[in-house]
Design brief:
This protein is of the alpha+beta class and about 500 residues long. The chain is about 20% helix and about 30% strand.
Length: about 500
């Protein structure tokens, strides 16, 4: 055979083998872990730090074994799941390890000292290897630097909030440094550039990012649209915020809006309002958990499609403004009034009747609603709301929101305040808006912060509508739009940079 023929044969063979190994579906697990927190805010010894991390890893090991027994190929554990979040730069230091670039081909379980002391990576690697399962965890990376690097912090090291993935042999296959740090995370540095981390498996192409990242373009949207991942791994420590940003509500909406699977493992801490994990698909949640009452974590198992993408050009396949720009405004006699959802001033219009059509507009956004309530209770008020503007006090990013919302009480000044329960079911709703973006996330939230799997759909003309009415009372139906190109530059990135430089000069 000519060399070129041999090459072709090898390629064909390799493809055949890959196809035989590839599966249409796979079982995945996310574990909502109640993190055991350090008992002191003071700096501890490396041994004490490891002891605390081992207590958390003891619990995670139980979850990993259980996941493997249930046939899962991959398990996701939460952000800050091994040591918590109450730290300064100094006090987190004993918890950190140097995490190498996965291209070094390292199995910590079989070669634990190759890159210095790394007991956490060793144990995670062994848990993956001994149970033949991909393990996804969140730990801290430290990278020494010196004055030859003008951005090197004064204490001589970078510290990163880091996701790691170990494959079924225990090999480190992915390392991701969190790009969009949340405000209190001063123990960590921002990476200089966003990282777009992916890896291939027989059950699809995976991407990874963490928590606050999900609200921004880089790396989250780029992974889904340009790098075309099938499933996103998402360790998080998410603090629920009603009405639009509870964990299960927004994370399920992101999976639908982007047309990918999202495996979201949240930390469980009811005092911090952290609960809500799930295995979310483009068609809705396969499994989810929200419990603000118990202290217990929860293992969630579901079988997912390995190739869930609806089309290669999703989400552009949905024209979010098509319907809304084609209809006339339902103006009528409806008065509008302003109301605050936290600091954002929405334009609201009360749904006074049992059924009807409404339009409200703010700036460039007009929202249309057609609805029918099953019962119109005197004790409850619903509004249609619109918001088009910058959200956030420190980090400012642009939202366009259309929402059907239950007010906290019958007093209209409470519209937009958090409300967890409702009594009114809807026989139908259809919500649309004149969005200036392709990135719109459809949320439906029922009383008790419950999702509505299979009970609503998004049409290609951008309408979010019920299929057969709502099986439970409704808290909110929301089209959550993000205009990434109108976001302001991140103020904290440069602030922390200058801050570190100044500390160095002192
Ligand atoms: C929901 C949201 C965004 C509202 O401002 C906020 O409550 C939230 O949970 N942000 C992400 C939190 C995060 O990155 N945690 C990791 C370190 S504690």
């Amino acid at each position: 055979m000519a060399p070129s023929q041999t090459l072709v044969c090898a390629a064909v063979l390799a493809l055949a083998v890959l196809q035989a190994l590839a599966s249409d579906t796979f079982i995945a697990v996310v574990y909502e872990h109640t993190v055991i927190l350090p008992r002191t805010i003071h700096k501890v010894s490396p041994d004490d730090a490891l002891a605390l991390m081992n207590r958390n890893m003891d619990v995670l090991e139980g979850a990993i074994k259980e996941a493997a027994q249930q046939g899962a190929r991959i398990i996701v554990t939460p952000e800050d799941g091994i040591y918590g979040w109450v730290f300064t730069r100094e006090t987190i230091y004993p918890y950190l390890e140097d995490i190498p670039d996965p291209e070094v081909n390292w199995i910590p379980c079989t070669d634990p000292t190759r890159f210095g002391r790394a007991p956490v990576q060793e144990r995670l690697s062994c848990m993956a290897r001994n149970n033949s399962i991909y393990v996804v965890a969140n730990i801290g990376d430290k990278k020494p630097c010196n004055s030859s690097d003008p951005k090197c912090p004064s204490d001589g090291r970078y510290q990163y909030n880091t996701d790691v993935v170990f494959d079924t042999e225990g090999k480190l296959v992915a390392r991701y440094h969190k790009y969009n740090l949340f405000r209190q995370e001063t123990q960590f540095n921002y990476p200089k550039e966003p990282e777009f981390i992916t890896f291939e498996t027989p059950f699809g192409k995976f991407g990874i990012f963490t928590c606050f990242d999900i609200l921004f373009r880089e790396p989250a949207v780029v992974l889904a649209t340009e790098l075309q991942v099938d499933t996103v791994l998402f360790p998080t420590a998410w603090m629920n915020v009603l009405p639009f940003l509870t964990a299960v509500e927004f994370h399920s909406a992101w999976a639908m809006g982007m047309g990918v699977n999202l495996l979201s493992a949240n930390t469980h801490n009811t005092i911090m309002s952290m609960t809500g994990s799930g295995l979310f698909t483009p068609h809705g949640p396969a499994m989810y958990y929200y419990n603000s009452k118990t202290k217990e974590g929860r293992l969630l198992v579901a079988e997912l499609s390995a190739r869930p993408r609806l089309s290669p050009n999703y989400p552009a396949a949905v024209n979010w403004s098509s319907y809304a720009t084609s209809v006339k405004n339902y103006s009528g006699e409806n008065k509008t009034f302003p109301g605050a959802v936290r600091r954002d001033i929405f334009t609201f219009s009360e749904l006074k009747h049992k059924a009807g059509n409404h339009t409200v507009c703010q700036k460039d956004l007009c929202c249309h609603l057609t609805y029918q309530m099953s019962n119109k209770s005197k004790d409850e008020v619903y509004v249609l709301g619109a918001f088009d503007g910058l959200h956030g006090s420190v980090i400012k990013y642009h939202w366009q929101i259309c929402t059907l919302l239950k007010c906290k009480s019958t007093d209209l000044s409470t519209c937009g305040q958090p409300s967890e329960t409702a009594q009114t079911k809807f026989a139908m709703f259809s919500l649309s808006g004149t969005f200036g973006t392709n990135y719109v996330f459809p949320e439906v939230l029922y009383s008790g912060v419950q999702l509505a799997p299979g009970e609503f759909e998004v049409l290609s003309d951008g309408r979010l509508q019920s299929k057969n009415g709502t099986s439970k009372p409704l808290l909110t139906v929301t089209l959550f739009g993000r205009c990434y190109e109108k976001d302001l530059p991140h103020p904290l990135r440069s602030f922390l940079f200058l801050h570190n430089k100044k500390r160095k000069q002192l």
